[in-house]
Automatic annotation (TrEMBL):
The chain crosses the membrane at residues 12-29, 35-55, 76-98, 110-131, 143-162, 182-200. It is a multi-pass membrane protein. GO terms for biological process: proteolysis. Signal peptide: none annotated. Keywords: Cell membrane, Hydrolase, Membrane, Metal-binding, Metalloprotease, Protease, Transmembrane, Transmembrane helix, Zinc. It is found in: Cell membrane. Its cofactor is Zn(2+). This is Peptidase M50 family.
């Protein structure tokens, strides 16, 4: 049964808000007068991307019979905020901690790749919604939905590629340790999505 502790919910909410703020600062391009407008839009894209990424790890770990709980990393939250002022963001607010006496590399790799895969799927969903807006895009609400989808697409593909970097403790290092071919394929897909959609959106 999938359960959440009070501390876990608190950590998810804090991480969710701080990361959304970091991306808001990043996308403000130095003009912070519109943060109150950009923040709610980014909140949706980042919210889905961040929360479902972590839930992907948690649910799959629990599927394999492990107890898993998200815990924030205060230093990571601070780095995310500070880096956003310099035109990039190091998004490592925390991680799902899996309690086990030992885990096979394959199992660890599968659990680790779940988060980036969720981000890729969410990015594609945002893009499909974007392509289906039609004339609705010319309405006030349509313009907001358009912006949400553009940011949701970009942010989710970025989160997938970033987390697949083969640098401990990121997901990519665990996937690489399990299977080099699978890491190469998923990282290549995520990186290409970032490059392609970053250029057309």
């Amino acid at each position: 049964m999938f359960r959440f502790t009070i501390n876990e919910i608190r950590d998810l909410i804090i991480s969710f808000i701080v990361i959304a703020l970091g991306f808001t600062i990043l996308y403000s391009n130095g003009d912070y007068s519109h943060i109150s407008i950009i923040f709610p839009v980014v909140l949706i894209g980042v919210g889905l991307g961040f929360v479902f990424h972590e839930l992907g790890h948690k649910f799959l770990a629990m599927h394999y019979g492990y107890y898993a709980e998200y815990q924030l990393w205060p230093t990571g939250l601070l780095i995310a905020l500070v880096s956003s002022f310099f035109g990039f963001i190091f998004a490592a607010p925390g991680a799902v901690v899996i309690y086990s006496q030992g885990m096979e590399k394959k199992t660890n790799g599968i659990i680790s790749i779940a988060g980036p895969v969720v981000n890729i799927i969410l990015g594609l969903i945002f893009f499909l919604i974007l392509g289906s807006l039609g004339d609705f895009i010319y309405t006030d609400m349509g313009a907001i939905v358009y912006l949400i989808c553009v940011l949701g697409t970009r942010i989710n593909f970025f989160l997938a590629a970033f987390n697949l970097l083969p640098i401990p403790p990121l997901d990519g290092s665990k996937v690489l340790s399990w299977s080099v071919p699978i890491w190469l394929i998923t990282f290549a897909i995520a990186a290409l999505l970032v490059l392609f959609f970053g250029g057309i959106l």
